[in-house]
């Protein structure tokens, strides 16, 4: 029998623990502390109590960013929870050449978000392919301002997120669908259930836990959206900055020599609170349904 | 249970300790000794000069080490991206190199924190050697002294796509010299080209307000005041032009460099850019480059300054001062300006025919225009204007131009936010 010294397990977890503490726990604690100060990159920080949160309450930019992030989540959530499931059902079938479609749906996931957003920017520009084609067809007389109108820019970015996320969630659903027992489908079919009824009564309950996981993942990532809006708006947040997301706002205040680190930290806590909300709600709904 | 409380205590101490205690302006810091023999190690930090100008900089350093035997220069070059973050990290961590390339706006926050040496006090000959505009750029409101050796200068020149102008009934040799003429020619170009190309492709910035006679800040530099009727009138003009389709719609979200990009693509017929634009255009769009005609900037040309600042914490001030003076001396600056289209900040270079006489090419003309413009060029935006302020101003101007807010509302909002950012 081998004897282990008491510290052996600690030694084993030490590299991961140090990493976690240095790059996750410590910055989190630091953010929490800074949120109550007027910290700048250079210069002394002083405790300012709830001043940063008071400032946030009167910040129009924050109000816009919150609206954008919440709309983003509300639109992405149903689309990225249901569409990948439908696609997964389609590509689950064992047909010749189905691997091509599986790969095709997954390709956008591999591409960099920034590169993809740049390409979409070119496509949606006034002189881009989409407007050019629509004008050539005579569907529109003047270019549609996809990138310079507040809501169109937001929905262009949402479309990009949905398109890019489809493949990722499709893969998760594919593995979940493999666990839905075939006999259940067969029994339902024998009982006279059509494909739609089987979808709602067999497939959806079978992947319900996966749906919940995906809902949580989608809502968290949608609330933290950055690249799509940043690239499509050239970093400006659109006219009036009304297309900035919460993360863009945090980035704006935390950068440079004159960054407002205290305020940016307070905004990070606001983002944390906003992100935890829908997660708890989804978990609660799931518990109720179970 | 005891362990639990001990853990909490450690956490409390950790929380109390972290975050706070950054760099404070240190009025009690020992006075840097600036006199003495030039010898020992001294570090020099440049910004994105490797590998393109490695030979040049190394040559300057070798010359310095020959001039001062016993002195040894450690050269650090930082990449172009994220330079401000790099300098910030160095400043906050107390590892600022002895001599640092800092443009005036980067130097300002460091001056506020007392991290840079007043070279004006250490070197009484500054005014004899460098042009006033260059020195002025390193003098700051609320701080006595001069905090950098001006290095190389640049300004903006107007560039016109002669082919697009001629094709659409405009004379490239008679470019617009005012906003009125610009809008009028933009209208002609739009009508003749059926809206396919534009002349104007940038929205106004704070510098345009300055050129229209609008003060950006109060004389004491404590608040922003650019929400004047003149500023409202300027934004109104742009809104009308935008509504008329004289500017591409992307201008609302384009950044300052957006118009040079559209010009390079051949989508617009006018851009502003530095004196060396045609040289870079020859690489990016070789067929367009020969068709470009330069002309002086409208209004007061902007002054772009690069300089060398000296860390107050330097342990070798005599060598740091000598090195900064050496790198920025007339001879070394002239040699640099012969390699790339920048202009020396030394008075001795004023009569150098290399800068004042064109070689007959359009690029040469642009260089002479830029060099001549430098005499009246000014830093148009106050150094207190931060990136966050510029971004907010751009966003508000975009809102006024697309008509979602009145010019007055946008300007009032911009002033209020800039004031808030200045004070917080």
Automatic annotation (TrEMBL), chain A:
Q: What is this protein called?
A: Sugar ABC transporter permease
Q: How does it sit in the membrane?
A: Multi-pass membrane protein
Q: List, alphabetically, the GO terms of the cellular component aspect.
A: plasma membrane
A Pfam family hit: BPD_transp_1
Its keywords, alphabetically, are: Cell membrane, Membrane, Transmembrane, Transmembrane helix, Transport
Where is the major localization of this protein? membrane
- TM spans (from-to): 70-91, 103-123, 151-174, 207-226, 261-283
* Ranges for domain ABC transmembrane type-1: 66-282
PANTHER family in the cross-refs = ABC TRANSPORTER PERMEASE PROTEIN, LACTOSE TRANSPORT SYSTEM PERMEASE PROTEIN LACF
Top-level lineage group: Bacteria
State where the protein is found: Cell membrane
Annotated family? Belongs to the binding-protein-dependent transport system permease family.
Q: Which residues form a coiled coil?
A: none
- Name the InterPro entries on file: ABC_transporter_permease (IPR051393), MetI-like (IPR000515), MetI-like_sf (IPR035906)
One of the GO BP terms on file: transmembrane transport
Automatic annotation (TrEMBL), chain B:
Q: Keywords assigned by UniProt?
A: Cell membrane, Lipoprotein, Membrane, Palmitate, Signal
- Where, if anywhere, are coiled coils annotated? none
InterPro entries of this UniProt entry? Answer: Bact_solute-bd_prot1 (IPR050490), SBP (IPR006059)
Give the top-rank taxon of the lineage listed in the UniProt record for this protein: Bacteria
According to the record, the signal peptide region is: 1-28
Pfam families the record matches: SBP_bac_1
For the keyword Protein transport, the answer is no
Protein name (database record): Sugar ABC transporter substrate-binding protein
Q: Which organism is it from?
A: Nonomuraea longispora
What taxonomic classification does the UniProt entry list for its organism? Bacteria, Bacillati, Actinomycetota, Actinomycetes, Streptosporangiales
């Amino acid at each position: 029998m081998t004897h282990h010294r008491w510290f052996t397990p600690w030694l084993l977890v030490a590299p991961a623990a140090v990493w976690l503490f240095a790059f996750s726990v410590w910055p989190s604690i630091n953010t929490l502390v800074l949120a109550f100060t007027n910290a700048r990159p250079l210069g002394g920080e002083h405790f300012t109590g709830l001043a940063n949160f008071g400032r946030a309450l009167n910040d129009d930019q924050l109000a816009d960013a919150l609206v954008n992030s919440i709309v983003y989540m509300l639109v992405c959530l149903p689309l990225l929870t249901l569409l990948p499931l439908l696609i997964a059902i389609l590509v689950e079938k064992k047909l010749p050449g189905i691997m091509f479609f599986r790969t095709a749906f997954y390709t956008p996931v591999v591409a960099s978000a920034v590169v993809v957003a740049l390409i979409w920017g070119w496509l949606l520009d006034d002189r881009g392919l989409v407007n050019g084609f629509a004008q050539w067809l005579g569907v529109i007389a003047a270019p549609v301002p996809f990138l310079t109108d507040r809501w169109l820019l937001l929905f262009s970015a949402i479309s990009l997120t949905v398109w890019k996320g489809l493949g990722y969630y499709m893969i998760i659903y594919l593995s979940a669908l493999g666990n839905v027992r075939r006999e259940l489908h067969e029994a339902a079919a024998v009982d006279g259930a059509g494909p739609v009824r089987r979808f709602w009564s067999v497939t959806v309950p079978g992947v319900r836990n996966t749906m919940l996981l995906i809902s949580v993942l989608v809502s968290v990532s949608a609330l933290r959206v950055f690249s799509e809006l940043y690239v499509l708006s050239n970093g400006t947040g659109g006219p009036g900055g009304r297309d900035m997301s919460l993360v863009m706002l945090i980035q704006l205040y935390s950068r440079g020599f004159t960054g407002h680190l205290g305020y940016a930290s307070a905004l990070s806590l606001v983002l944390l609170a906003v992100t935890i909300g829908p997660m708890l709600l989804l978990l609660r709904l799931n518990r109720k349904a179970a | 249970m005891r362990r639990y409380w001990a853990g909490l205590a450690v956490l409390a101490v950790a929380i109390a300790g972290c975050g706070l205690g950054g760099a404070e302006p240190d009025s009690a810091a020992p006075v840097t000794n600036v006199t003495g023999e030039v010898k020992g190690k001294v570090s020099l930090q440049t910004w994105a000069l490797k590998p393109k100008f490695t030979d040049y900089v190394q040559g300057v350093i070798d010359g310095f080490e020959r001039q001062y035997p016993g002195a040894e220069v450690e050269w650090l070059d930082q990449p172009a991206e994220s330079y401000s973050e790099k300098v910030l990290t160095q400043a906050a961590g107390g590892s600022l190199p002895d001599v640092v390339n800092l443009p005036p706006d980067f130097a300002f926050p460091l001056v506020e924190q007392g991290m840079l040496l007043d070279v004006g006090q250490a070197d009484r000959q500054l005014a004899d050697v460098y042009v006033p505009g260059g020195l002025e750029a390193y003098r700051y409101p609320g701080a006595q002294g001069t905090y950098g050796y001006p290095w190389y200068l640049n300004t903006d020149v107007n560039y016109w796509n002669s082919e697009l102008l001629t094709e659409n009934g405009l004379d490239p040799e008679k470019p617009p010299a005012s906003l009125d003429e610009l809008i009028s020619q933009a209208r002609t170009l739009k009508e003749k080209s059926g809206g396919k190309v534009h002349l104007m492709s940038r929205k106004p910035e704070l510098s345009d307000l300055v050129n229209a006679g609008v003060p950006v800040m109060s004389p004491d530099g404590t608040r922003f005041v650019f929400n004047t009727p003149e500023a409202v009138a300027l934004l109104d003009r742009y809104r009308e032009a935008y509504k008329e389709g004289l500017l591409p719609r992307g201008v609302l979200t384009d950044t300052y460099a957006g118009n040079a990009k559209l010009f390079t693509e051949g989508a617009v017929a006018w851009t502003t850019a530095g004196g060396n634009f045609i040289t870079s255009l020859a690489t990016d769009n070789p067929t367009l480059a020969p068709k470009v005609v330069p002309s002086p900037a409208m209004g007061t040309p902007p002054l772009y300054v690069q300089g060398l600042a000296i860390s107050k914490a330097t342990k070798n001030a005599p060598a740091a001062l000598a090195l900064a003076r050496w790198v920025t001396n007339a001879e070394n600056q002239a040699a640099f300006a012969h390699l790339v289209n920048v202009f020396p900040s030394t008075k001795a270079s004023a009569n150098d025919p290399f800068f004042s006489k064109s070689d007959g090419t359009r690029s040469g003309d642009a260089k002479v225009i830029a060099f001549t413009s430098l005499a009246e060029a000014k830093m148009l935006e106050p150094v207190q204007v931060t990136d966050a302020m510029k971004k907010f101003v751009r966003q508000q101007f975009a809102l006024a131009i697309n008509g979602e807010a009145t010019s007055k509302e946008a300007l009032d909002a911009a002033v209020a936010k800039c004031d808030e950012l200045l004070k917080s």
